[in-house]
Amino acid sequence: MSTDPIRLGIVGLGAMGRRVLEVGLGHPEYAVTHAADLDPSVVSRLRAEHPGVRFSTTPADVIHADVDAVYVATPPATHAGLVVAALEGGKAVFCEKPLAISAADAEAMTVASAGRPTAVNFALSDRLATRYVEQALADGRVGDVLGVEIRLHFPVWPRPFQADATWVAGRAQGGFVREVLSHFAYLTDRLLGPLEPVHVQLGFGGAGESTAYGLLRAGDVPVQLIGSAGSPGPTTYEWILRGTNQSYLLRDWRDLFVADSNEWVPVELSGTEGSEDNRLSLFAHLIHGAPSPHLADFASGRRVQRVVEAFHATE
What we know:
The chain is α/β, with parallel strands linked by helices. It is 32% helix and 29% strand.
């Protein structure tokens, strides 16, 4: 295995791109050499902060640079063009979710990824809670799975940390179904198998999504979604797995609870928690030829894309 750092380029310097830039600069397995964003003010500021990185307002400068891997964190409608070009140039690619917003783009990206190290940045792929429930299912502790419930609510959308990304609010590329439900669709797909929509609905109010309702199934297991945005109440991220022996509640991305009677009891988790730093480490292992089961591959990203876009097909 090579001991040379992986030369990493980053396309898109919004909230996630800047996060990966900061993490990558301090990561022992990477050397961030190139980065690009369409906003000249962002590029100017980051160039002053990180003079060792070659910044540009032209994404192609990163895609065609002498780098080993590219992290793509641009709006999802642009993913396919950037990802396919990078893969055809021999680069490994780590792509932000959702993989794409059209079946044709997802197909093109999946085909181009054959034989190349690729992954999708789903935040739940390496979380301790994910791994714990996965093991509980494998051990039979859950018993028969009776159903999954997903509950999402956002008093304000976009969320404050995404306020500068105007596309996140729009119907064309954004909304909480693409931005948030995709994570929990990935989690359900990973633990129970591919999801099939039975009945889904998406409602709009003002500039974006206001409600989402879904009845889906993973094999014979019913999966229910209730989502809303733009009304009073606390921000809610909840995923519940109901089993005949045990049920699990995942709240706020990492807080896990178990019930084997009538009460939710916190689960004490130990080990390395999921993070951009950890996922970059897993991606480095993938580049070096080691399996990385706690990263989402393009095939799972494509399955999630199909589910998410089924909601938009109901408009």
